């Protein structure tokens, strides 16, 4: 066997560490003999370097070399050799007359019994008493994703994961057991002990496991940072005796999984003729124009393109009984399916994990990651200006390119958007400039031109690392003392450029402009823990944990902009190149946040039957004033493993049964630093002095609130875990009720105060639900298969609002306030609009309706409901018309293996939530295009009761008012997230080629979606509790087809 450099290094390290043992070896009688042999892994036959080979009853021994070989001199009285290695069952072999001994070691099943990572420790899964779900590395990499958090989607009940956007590099929105706050709902991430706010920087191939602490009792050990749940992430480490080099990579192509059904040119003209006539006018388009449209532009076809996606990771790992290491490098690159040249993301990651046992009692280690991200993007989910919204609303009659001219458009004050790829118009291909539409309101512009003139990029550099020293005193068995110091430091820079350009007579940039921003941040964290584990009579097991954490985060940022670049173009798009001094602006900021904590846990276990534990954490935060600076967060858990009782111990059907219950209290302090203090800042300019020249002001922008309190949540959880037929069938059920009090958020104040809304404690919200997870696995000879499914239901309700009118309003649409709201007795949040009761079908219906409510409706108009019963249809009739919060979530995974072939299929979905589809807006009347469902609009010959009459005047506000008939759509969906088929080369063949394993696969993501939502994608991130559920041209998820390769050397 050829010696590989990594394995050679491993062998040298193991040899040096074992030198002390060799020096202490006893002399062997001249009448002894030499025993030699090989030690291999019983599973794959691979040699095991670094295995301890010792003579029983002596300190004499050796270790296996790089090829698993050993040679040891024994005396005439030596009887047995002991072969030991971490992670393997110790084996004892009689010497007898042998001179050659070949041994195969088997993995230690007991030692490798599945364990679960919990706060500041690990537990055997069989004795866990909290609601904790695990996702292992095999599941994480089973569905190729760019963001590690996406691996949780549909894998565990009660964890709602939604992609914020389909744009490359976009994050995800994670809600554990519902929406608990009108502010931040993101869980805490703990990566190898370091507390983080997100994990977008992680390479998914570096992750060993992800544990989700769902109930308050499990996350209470993290106190004020555990209110939204905790996701524990353990990255991969080197394994003793396993010296490997691994490559994981894939390359694929993406495209749009569907287009929104929009009107073509003929349908567009026909519908708008109908709208004009219904408004009392004359048809806009002639029969000839409708029959032979000059243009029929499909704007979605123009912006959607195929784009590449790829990922490559290489790692090297290994170890001995005293040391291990893992080094990895990863690259992920993705171009967007909309404007790939303007929407891109690249991530480079380097990770080093290593630990070393410097003595029998002392262990040191380092986990370090460096990440560089480069991204560019386009505007999305905007009422006006977003390229995707423009593509959905732009009329099909305007051409993408202007074929009629090849000059400078002297009639326009600013040169129109130029097409750099133009061809002479005489050829009939494209044109020098992009097409221009000057219809009515002119808020919608050519999306292709808009994308071409979008320039934005962002670069982020990040380093995360922590070093630890762990001491396990030899003379005090069971005690572990650990100190861990970590840092998270980084910097970012963003640049945007807009050229001088004309889109239409309203939308134009009279001067080029540029903006730049940059910032840096740093976080340090120091944790010290002591854990003592001991037994009494082998039946009573105790563990006691105590610790403290100190943490500080600081950061600065700077922003500036300027117009009229002296040298136009992206390459010169820097603030220093601007020449218009009157347009220059700048701003900057600084933050400082500090947290100090003390925590503890006590656990008791009687024969692994009766389980009890309690935790506490005491936090102090700089975000709160002296009146409420500290918070106390306790919890208690209990469990009963019935399957270890004599009456069930030998049951052939139920092999495992555990019931458990818990209560805990957690907190949230996620508000701006020093949020309890008043703030000063710049205010609008006012005309002052004899000439009335506007002068900027500086004054109070936020009122102080010294009584601001911690946001706190208390939760009860009851669960049952059961295994049937030797765990062939496993089930987990949890029922919970969580009440979150003193929600932190901004309380609206009148505009005349001139101040921002102060941070206050706004109210209380309750989440109750049930979660079910099932797994069935079986083998039929060489055919292995499994089915894993989960489903969760959550009921979300606000029980108290700390406001005089009982309402807190969130984001709105069409520049209005209050389309999203929070109120007692409703979901958090809910759409605040008008309820409807069908459509007025006849003149008699309309006349009666008008007489009752003083309206001016006509047949075909919406019948709005007088919800408050005052006989008037007005703003006071707005009420709850739906919620973007899904109450149901589910996932299903099918797996099968036969010989070298493997297959997996993963389905995921959500149900119960609604979406406000802004592409149904009609405030632009005759300017915009529409969804094809408008073809079903009411007419005298089509008595539709789902779509009102189409009219350009809309005196009844059928479309402008936010109502549950036109705007609110069911956003439930079921999606085939991934299908993968792979083949692993037989070991005999791969080993002959110098490889331990070689697997190739093909994979498809987002292949099928079943939904009634008419927009581009029903899966859209929440974007904050009070701003969720608005689809104003969101970037859809891509469908992708991949080819991948896994190689282990």
TrEMBL record:
SUPFAM superfamilies: Carboxypeptidase regulatory domain-like (SSF49464), Porins (SSF56935)
Main subcellular location: membrane
Keywords (A to Z) from UniProt: Cell outer membrane, Membrane, Receptor, Signal, Transmembrane, Transmembrane beta strand, Transport
Topology in membrane: Multi-pass membrane protein
Domain TonB-dependent receptor plug: 127-230
InterPro entries referenced in this protein's UniProt entry, alphabetically: Beta-barrel_TonB_sf, CarboxyPept-like_regulatory, Plug_dom, Plug_dom_sf, TonB-dep_OMP_SusC/RagA, TonB-dep_OMP_SusC/RagA_CS, TonB-dep_rcpt-like
One GO location term (cellular component): cell outer membrane
Subcellular location: Cell outer membrane
Record-linked Gene3D superfamilies: Carboxypeptidase-like, regulatory domain (2.60.40.1120), TonB-dependent receptor, beta-barrel domain (2.40.170.20), TonB-dependent receptor, plug domain (2.170.130.10)
Keyword Signal found: yes
Signal peptide bounds: 1-25
Family: Belongs to the TonB-dependent receptor family.
Designated name of the protein: TonB-dependent receptor
